[in-house]
């Protein structure tokens, strides 16, 4: 019986070593697909008159500070008589701008509502009052013709 048990042990050792070799070969096969070759560099599109456009970009102090909204603008209103422009963003901020002979000048900034501004209106033709309504069910009215520029 001892010879049978020795044969069984040697067969189990042989089968274990062959299964280990099979696993190594399978691991090499199962490593996945090869990585694709790198894509060639894209050529930068050349715009006609690009140098002229770049040379004509404004370079003055007026462009060194941004008065823009941080979130997307939802409303832009213009009061024709007072030459005010009012912008409102979705985060509840409004900004007042004054139209000048050349360009637009920033006047005031308010955090009007904690929620989103749902609607905004100017009382044209007078153009002296602005009303804003928010999703928090509040109404705010501004008399902005008194703002100094």
Automatic annotation (TrEMBL):
GO terms for molecular function: isomerase activity. The keyword Cytoplasm does not apply. InterPro entries: WD40/YVTN_repeat-like_dom_sf, WD40_repeat_dom_sf, WD40_rpt. WD repeats lie at residues 66-98. The keyword Iron does not apply. Residues 1-10 have a biased composition (Basic and acidic residues). This is Peptidylprolyl isomerase domain and WD repeat containing protein 1, variant 2. Pfam families: WD40. It comes from Dermatophagoides farinae (American house dust mite).
